[in-house]
Structure formats: structure tokens, C-alpha cells
Amino acid sequence: MASTPASKRPLWIVVGVLLLSAAALWGSARLVWIEVPPGTTVDGAVTGDLTGSDLAAWPTPIALFGLAAVAAALGARGWARRVLGVLLLAVGVWVLWLTLGGSAYDVTWTGRAPGYGSEPGEPVRTLWGPAAAVTGGVLMAAGGALLTWRGHRMPRMGARYAAPGTQRARKDPDTELWDALSDGDDPTTRS
């Protein structure tokens, strides 16, 4: 059965959604989550603005997992795609729980460094870093849900190169006769 562009569309939607999810999670690790005024100390050390990778270890590995899931979605088929979809859905929900639960913001502010005592300001949470993580989690969960729901019907990318069946196309009988004569066989003696 030949795959039409319409039958490949859900697969390419999953691939695109997972790539966007990985990019959003990768970006959330690099974006500032907490703007820290000069001279503020965390665990006794002066620190600058805190990015997602400073606050949590999970954004970058989950982004890499999303990229690996693209390759798995393209190569797997049947129940393996459904298992991958359930796993992606669970990881996407877990990312949302980690981001919205606020555990990434558990930072112990230890005060002000000497010489910065008169500087005004308190650490402020930003919007863009967590928003990118939430976007990545939602996209990963959506890609997982689509893969779970429709994955068994999606074409496999390597299917084009699978070995054909043992049935060969029949030649025209007249062509077979002429080929036999060309090879030096007498086609009238065959049974």
C-alpha cells in the first residue's frame, strides 16, 4: 500500500510538534527564570540572574529526550509507537508539574554581599523561562497523545526499503517465448 501525503500528515505533525517541544525546553534552560539584583547571595555566594539550567537539571535532558523521540517515532511502528506516545504524554505532564509546581524556585537567599547593602531590589521571577518550559511540556504531551491515538496508522519511514514479497510480476507469455529462444531453449518442449 502506497502512502499518500495525507496519510503521512499525522506523522509529520508529530515530528514537528516534538521538534518544537525540544526547542522550547532547550530555550527554557537558557532563559532567565529569576532576575537577581546585584549583590544578592545564594548559599553565601554572589550570583547573577538565574536561568532554567541554574535552577533545575531537567530542561536540557528532556529536550534531548524529545529529539530522540523524533527518531523513535520515525522508525517504530505499531504498539512500539503507542508505548512511545504514552511515555511522551507522561513526560510532558511531568514537565508541567515540575514547572507549575514551583519546585524550580526553591532557592535559599542568604542576604546581601558586603558593599551592596544599600542596593534596592528583591529577586523577581520572570515569565519567559517558565512559559517556554510549559510550552515544551504541552507540546510534548500533545505529540504523545497524537502518537498514542493514531501512531499505529502512521506510515513507517523505512517501509519503502523493506524487502518485497516473494511474488514476482508475471511476464507476458509472448515475451517469455522470445526470451527462451534468445537463451537457446526450445519453448515448445516445456511442460
From TrEMBL:
Residues 162-191 are annotated as: Disordered. It comes from the Bacteria. InterPro entries: Trp_biosyn_TM_oprn/chp. Pfam families: Trp_oprn_chp. Keywords: Membrane, Transmembrane, Transmembrane helix. Residues 182-191 have a biased composition (Acidic residues). This is Uncharacterized protein. It comes from Prauserella muralis.
